[in-house]
Amino acid sequence: MYKADSIRHIKSSKGIDFIQSARYIIFGSKAMDRITDILTLLGLGKKTGIIISGSTKTYRIGLDVQSKLDSEGFKAEIIPVKSGIPALKEVYRVEKAIGLANAEYVIAVGGGSVIDIAKLAAVWRNLKYISVPTSAAHDGIASPSISFLLKQEVERTRGEEWSRCEAPIAIIADTEVIMNAPEVTLISGCGDLISKYVSVKDWILAAKLKDEPFSEYAASLALLSARLVASHAAEIKPGLEESVRIVVKSLIGSGMAISIAGSSRPASGSEHMFSHALDLLHKEKGYKNAPHGIQCGLGAIMMEYLHGGNWKRLRKKLKIIGCPVTATEAGLSEEAVVKALTIAHKIRNRYTILGESGLSENAARKLAMKTGVIE
C-alpha cells in the first residue's frame, strides 16, 4: 500500500533537487513490439504484471500487448476501465485488482484517462508503471501529473499526498498505433503544447512577483516542446506518421519538464486554469466542454493577449494545425467561456497573469471578443 515516506518526497528536502523521469523512452512505428525488451532491461522479465486498458478500442490494443507478452513467456493480466473522465472508484477497483493479481508492475495502455487511473493505482501500490499511449492528446503520457478533476477528487476525499504520482519508468509510444487514434486527439495534443508559451510566462511572472522557485532548464524544455510544434505547424496532419512523431516527441519533452520542475508549473498556467474551469463548469453546471488541449489552446490565445504577447501568432499556428480558435468551433457556449474566465484564477493556488482577483464579467467578455474567441 501507499507509503507516505516514498522516495518521491526527496524533492521537498532542503537544498535537494530531485528529478524523477522515465528510464527508457522508445517511440516510432512498431515500438510496441519492443515491450518485452524494455521489461527485460527493467528486470521485470520473470515478474507478474497487470495491463490497464480502455474498454473498447484500446482494450483490443491491450490484448495485443498481452498476446505479445504471452508469446515470449511473460505473465500479465488485463483489466479494462471505463472511458471518459477517470472516476476515483475506478482507481480503487484497479488498485484492488493489482493486489489480487499479486502484480509487481503495471502497464498502462490507452489515452489520458486510462494512464491517469493506472499511474495513481500503481503509486498507491508502490509499483512502477509503463506508459503505452494510444493517442497524443496531452503531456500526461509522460508526466507525473494526473487530470485536474481526478486530482481534486482524490484530495477532497483522501488528502493531497494521495494525489502525488510518479513519472512512468518507461514510455513506449507506437506512432503507428497513435496515428490511428481519432483526429481530434492529435489536434488536442498540439493545443496543449502551444499553450506552453503562456504557462512559462506565467511561471516567470510568479517568480518575479511572488518569489516562486523557478527552473530555467524546465522552462526551456517546455518552450522547446511548444516551438517544435509551432515550427512544424503546416506539416502536422492527422494520419501522418511523421506528424505523430513530432507531437509525441514534444509531449514527452513537456512531461519531462514537469518532472524536472517538480511541479506542473512549466506546462500549466492561466490557460490550463481556464480549461480546468470549463471542466468544472461541465461537471457542476452541465455546460458542454471540449477536449483538454483544445480548451488550453483557446485559453492560450486569450492569456497571451493579457501578457501583451503576440496572441495573433499563437492563433494563426493553432488554426494552421486545425485546432479550434473560437468557442463555436470548439463546441463551447459563449456563456461558458465568459464564466470560466471569471473563475479561472480561483481554480488552484497558483499565481498567473489573472492575478489574485481575476477578471470581472465585463472584462472577460471583452477579452474573449477582442481575441475572436467569441463574437
Could you write a compact summary of the structure shown?
The chain is an alpha/beta fold and 375 residues long. 51% of the residues lie in helices and 9% in strands. It contains 16 helices and six strands.
Q: Roughly how many Å is the radius of gyration? A: 20 Å
**Strand order in the sheet with the most strands:** 1-6-5-4-2-3
Given the structure, what is the number of helices?
Answer: 16
Strand content: 5-15%
Largest sheet: 6 strands, parallel
What name does the CATH topology of the largest domain carry? Dehydroquinate synthase-like, alpha domain
Gross morphology is globular
Query: Low-confidence runs (pLDDT<50, min 5 residues)?
Result: 1-13
- The pLDDT mean sits at 93
User: CATH homologous superfamily name of the largest domain?
Assistant: Dehydroquinate synthase-like - alpha domain
Give helix and strand order, one letter per element, not per position: EHEHEHEHEHEHHHHHHHHHHH
Structural features:
alpha/beta, 2 domains, 375 residues, single chain, Rossmann fold, 16 helices, Dehydroquinate synthase-like, alpha domain
Plain-language structure description:
This protein is of the alpha/beta class and about 375 residues long. It folds into 2 domains: about 5-180, Rossmann fold, CATH 3.40.50; about 190-370, Dehydroquinate synthase-like - alpha domain (Dehydroquinate synthase-like, alpha domain, Up-down Bundle), CATH 1.20.1090.10. It has helices spanning about 35-40, 55-70, 90-100, 110-125, 150-155, 175-180, 185-195, 195-210, 215-230, 240-260, 270-285, 290-305, 310-320, 325-330, 335-345, 360-370; strands spanning about 25-30, 50-55, 75-80, 105-110, 130-135, 170-175. Strands 1-6-5-4-2-3 form a 6-stranded parallel sheet, sandwiched between helices. Helix 11 (about 270-285) packs across helix 15 (about 335-345), helix 12 (about 290-305) packs antiparallel against helix 13 (about 310-320) and helix 15 (about 335-345) crosses helix 16. The longest helix has 21 residues, at about 240-260. The N and C termini lie far apart (about 50 Å).
